[in-house]
């Protein structure tokens, strides 16, 4: 559209004055030229101001550099003096610290010597304890060897059982390794009071299957060992019942001694059916603690039986005591009579003493005449007025 316009064509009217495209272009060029002149002038003025400002900055920089140089000189002098003072202070402090460190090291060496002495004492105690542990481990190994051997293990159980029985009962109340009428020899026979029956105690508990069960590497082997343990215990229970339960000679109940509390607890926990079968055969499994309880119960039974045996003697003594009390009562009655009679005599003596006292008082209060007056009147009768 603008291309089709002519430069001389009128495109604007301001008032009555027409303006062509050429006029507008000339006016725009003049405006641009004016703006360019103004910008050039401002640029020259700005450069001059920049030069002046740069000179001012340079002068300010030189002045500040001079000030900074003076300050650096002062700071260097102060730093040098402070360094001298610091060196002197450090020397004094190092001397003080050296003295303190020397004193501290001396005290520390003394404390270390004391601690080492105490440590040597404790090491001696530890050595003694280690020796005790070594001896204990040797004893445990020997105990393990004992428990590994069937015969020595039986002797071990027999020894524990004998110690418990001998500790709690009178020597006449038990016997070890006694022979029964069928030729069997139980480990212990206990005499029951008021009965000719003997209580049998067997101390040969089978531990091979229990040890195999405890040392089993897996569940399958443990099951096999448990089955073997049940079988061994039941067989031993039946052997006790067959060998030692004799009618008219031994008590119908026998005791199978288990020399270990842990074995006894595991039997009651995992093999309750075995324990029940043993009870049905009248075989009681007893650990050391249970055996001690049974012994204490037998002590009470024996004591009660002994008291019953001595009851007639006690009764005779009570009769004699009653006779003595009766005689004492009679003698107390006689003594009471004597005391009553003596009390009456004392009462009469008291009355007589009162009469004598009254008469003495009356005599003392009598008004007696002088001897001359009595001689002057001889014909008067001699009579005392006793009142």
Describe how the helices and strands are arranged.
Blueprint: E1 10-14, E2 17-20, H1 21-148, H2 150-168, E3 174-176, E4 188-191, E5 198-202, H3 208-214, H4 219-244, E6 254-257, H5 261-270, H6 272-280, E7 283-286, H7 288-309, H8 311-364, H9 371-376
Helix pairs in contact: 1-2, 2-7, 3-4
- Look at the helices and sheets and give the structural class: alpha/beta
Q: CATH architecture of the domain at 150-309, please?
A: 3-Layer(aba) Sandwich
Q: What's the CATH class label of the domain at 150-309? A: Alpha Beta
Helix content: over 70%
Biggest sheet, open or closed, and with what strands and sense?
5 strands, mixed
Walk me through the structure.
This protein has about 375 residues and is of the alpha/beta class. Among the domains are: about 35 residues; about 160 residues, Trna Endonuclease, Chain: A, domain 1 (3-Layer(aba) Sandwich), CATH 3.40.1350. It is built from nine helices and seven strands, in the order ββααβββααβααβααα. A five-stranded mixed beta sheet has the order 3-4-5-6-7, with helices on both faces. A two-stranded antiparallel sheet has the order 1-2. A hairpin with a 6-residue loop joins β4 and β5. The longest helix has about 130 residues.
Can I get a quick summary?
The protein is built from 9 helices and 7 strands; from the N terminus they run E-E-H-H-E-E-E-H-H-E-H-H-E-H-H-H. It is an alpha/beta fold and 387 residues long. Among the domains are: 112-148; 150-309, 3-Layer(aba) Sandwich (Trna Endonuclease, Chain: A, domain 1).
């Amino acid at each position: 559209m603008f291309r089709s316009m002519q430069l001389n064509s009128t495109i604007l009217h301001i008032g009555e004055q027409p303006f062509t495209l050429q006029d507008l272009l000339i006016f725009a060029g003049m405006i641009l030229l004016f703006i360019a002149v103004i910008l050039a002038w401002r640029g020259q003025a700005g450069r001059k101001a920049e030069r002046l400002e740069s000179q001012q900055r340079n002068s300010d920089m030189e002045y500040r550099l001079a000030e900074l140089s003076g300050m650096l000189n002062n700071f260097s002098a102060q730093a040098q003096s402070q360094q001298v003072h610091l060196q002197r202070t450090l020397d004094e402090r190092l001397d003080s610290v050296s003295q303190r460190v020397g004193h501290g090291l001396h005290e520390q060496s003394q404390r270390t010597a004391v601690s080492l002495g105490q440590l040597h004492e404790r090491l001696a105690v530890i050595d003694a304890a280690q020796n005790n542990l070594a001896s204990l481990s040797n004893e445990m190994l020997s105990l393990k060897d004992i428990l590994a051997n069937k015969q020595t293990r039986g002797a071990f159980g027999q020894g524990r059982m004998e110690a418990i029985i001998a500790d709690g009962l009178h020597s006449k109340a038990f016997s070890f390794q006694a022979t029964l009428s069928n030729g069997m020899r139980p480990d212990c026979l206990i005499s029951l009071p008021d009965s000719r029956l003997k209580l049998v105690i067997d101390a040969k508990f089978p531990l091979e299957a229990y040890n195999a069960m405890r040392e089993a590497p897996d569940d399958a082997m443990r099951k096999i060992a448990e089955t073997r343990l049940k079988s061994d215990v039941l067989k031993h229970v039946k052997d006790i019942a067959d060998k030692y339960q004799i009618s008219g000679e031994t008590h119908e109940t026998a005791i199978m001694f288990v020399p270990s509390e842990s074995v006894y607890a595991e039997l009651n926990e995992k093999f309750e059916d075995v324990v029940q079968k043993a009870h049905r055969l009248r075989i009681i499994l007893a650990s050391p603690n249970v055996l001690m309880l049974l012994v204490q119960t037998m002590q009470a039974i024996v004591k009660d039986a002994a008291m019953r045996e001595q009851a007639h003697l006690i009764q005779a003594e009570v009769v004699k005591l009653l006779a003595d009390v009766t005689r004492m009562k009679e003698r107390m009655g006689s003594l009471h009579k004597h005391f009553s009679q003596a009390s009456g005599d004392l009462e009469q003596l008291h009355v007589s003493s009162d009469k004598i006292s009254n008469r003495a008082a009356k005599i003392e209060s009598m008004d007696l005449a002088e001897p001359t007056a009595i001689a002057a009147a001889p014909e008067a009768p001699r009579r005392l007025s006793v009142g």
